Amino acid sequence: FKDRISFITFVLGGPGSGKGTQCEKIVETFGFKHLSAGDLLRREIASKSEYGSMILNTIKDGRIVPSEVTIKLIQKEMESSDNKKFLIDGFPRCEENRIAFEQIIGAEPNIVLFFDCPVEEMVKRLLNRNQGRVDDNMDTIKKRLEVFEELNLPVVNYYAEKGKLHKICALGTEDEIFEQVWPVFAACKQ
Ligand code: UP5
Ligand code: MG
Question: Residue 169: which region, alpha, beta or left (left: phi > 0; alpha: psi -120 to 50)?
Answer without folding.
Answer: beta
